[in-house]
C-alpha cells in the first residue's frame, strides 16, 4: 500500500483558513445571541465552531507533525478489492456493452512493484524499469 500525503504548505494554509473560520463562527454566534436571534442560529454557530476546530487540528497536525495523515491510499487489487467493481461485474457480466472484457482483479491492471509502472497481464519484465516481475 502506498499513501499520498498532503503537502505541508497547503496544510498550513488550510489550518490558517480553519482558524479564521473558528474566529468568524465565534463572532457570528455572539452576534446571533446578542441580537436575540432564535436559538437555532446560536446552535448553528456552535456547530460551525466545533467543525472548524476539528479541521484546524487536522490541518495543523499535517502541516507541522512528523506523521501526516494520508489523503489517499494506493492499494493493489490483491490487498483490497473494490466492492463497486465486484457489484458491477456480478450485475452486468464480465464484458462491457461492446463485448470487450472488463478489467479483472487478476487481469490487466498490474503494476510493477519496483517502479509502479503499469504492466500487462503477460509481461515478464517491466516495460519501464526492466526488472523481472514476480507474477
Ligand atoms: Zn518497473
> Number of helical runs?
3
Mean pLDDT: 87
The overall strand count is 4
SSE ordering: EHHEHEE
Offer a quick outline of the entry.
The protein is mainly alpha-helical and 135 residues long. The chain has helices at residues 8-34, 39-64, 83-92; strands spanning 2-4, 72-74, 110-111, 118-119.
Attribute tags:
135 residues; mainly alpha; two-stranded antiparallel ribbon; 47% helix; binds zinc ion
Note the topology.
Elements: E1 2-4, H1 8-34, H2 39-64, E2 72-74, H3 83-92, E3 110-111, E4 118-119
Helix pairs in contact: 1-2
This protein binds zinc ion (ZN).
Plain-language structure description:
This protein has 135 residues and is mainly alpha-helical. It has a domain of 71 residues. Helix content is 47%, strand content 7%. It contains three helices and four strands, in the order βααβαββ. Strands 1-2 form a two-stranded antiparallel ribbon. A two-stranded antiparallel ribbon has the order 3-4. A hairpin with a 6-residue loop joins strand 3 and strand 4. The longest helix is centred in the first third of the chain and has 27 residues. The protein is elongated and about 70 Å long. The two termini are 17 Å apart. 9% of the residues are buried. The mean pLDDT is 87. It binds zinc ion. Zinc ion binds next to loops. The site of zinc ion (ZN) has 8 residues, from loops.
Amino acid at each position: 500500500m502506498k499513501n499520498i500525503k498532503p503537502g505541508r504548505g497547503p496544510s498550513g494554509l488550510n489550518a490558517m483558513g480553519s482558524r479564521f473560520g473558528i474566529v468568524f463562527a465565534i463572532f457570528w454566534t455572539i452576534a446571533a445571541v446578542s441580537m436575540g436571534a432564535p436559538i437555532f442560529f446560536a446552535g448553528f454557530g456552535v456547530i460551525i465552531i466545533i467543525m472548524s476546530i476539528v479541521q484546524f487540528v487536522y490541518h495543523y497536525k499535517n502541516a507541522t507533525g512528523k506523521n501526516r495523515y494520508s489523503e489517499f491510499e494506493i492499494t493493489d487489487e490483491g490487498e483490497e478489492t473494490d466492492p463497486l467493481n465486484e457489484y458491477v461485474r456480478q450485475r452486468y457480466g464480465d464484458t462491457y456493452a461492446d463485448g470487450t472484457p472488463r478489467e479483472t482483479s487478476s487481469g490487466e491492471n498490474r503494476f510493477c512493484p519496483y517502479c509502479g509502472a503499469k504492466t500487462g497481464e503477460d509481461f515478464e519484465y517491466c516495460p519501464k524499469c526492466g526488472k523481472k516481475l514476480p507474477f
